Amino acid sequence: RRIGRLRWYPDDWRVFTTVVLRKSGKPDYSVPKAYRPIALVNTMAKLLSAVVTERTSSLLE
After folding, report:
1. Which helix H or strand E contains 51, and what residues bound it?
2. Superkingdom of the source (predicted)?
C-alpha cells in the first residue's frame, strides 16, 4: 500500500536481466533470428504488477 500511496517504486525493482537463448534446430547461429531473448524480472516487481493489474481490473468492472 505504501508504494501506491507514495507513488514510489524501488530502483532495484526496475532492473532486469536479459538472457539470450539459442532456438533449437536452427541451421545458422550467426543469424540474430536464431536466438530468443528472455527477460528476468525481479519477483517483487512481478508480484506488485500482478496486484496492481488485479485491483485496476476490479475497479473497471
Report:
1. helix 43-60
2. Eukaryota
Span 2-54, pLDDT tens digits: 666 666 777 887 888 999 999 999 999 999 999 999 999 888 888 888 888 88
| Nearest partner of 44 among 56, 3, 34, judged by Cα | 3
Closest by CA to 39, choosing from 12, 20, 14, is: 20
Q: Which residues pair with 37 in a beta bridge?
A: 20
Q: Are 39 and 16 in contact (CB under 8 A)?
A: yes
Domain residue extents for the chain: 2-60
* Long-range contact set of residues 24-27: C-beta below 8 Å, sequence gap at least 24: none
What single-letter amino acid sits at 60? Answer: L
Nearest Cα to 41, choosing from 4, 9, 12, 3?
A: 12
